[in-house]
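tool=predict chain=A
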Amino acid sequence: MTELVRVLRRLRRLTDDPRDAFAHRLRIGFAVAALILILSLLR
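tool=predict ok
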């Protein structure tokens, strides 16, 4: 459980630059979408 919390803290990014925050959210979104696609293709 602590490993999961550590990973989630690394994924969270605190920044004042809106462009950087948007780019980070976009990368995370693409990673999650790719993971969902891979898991759905394996079923």
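The radius of gyration is 13 Å. The helical segments are 2-11, 18-42.
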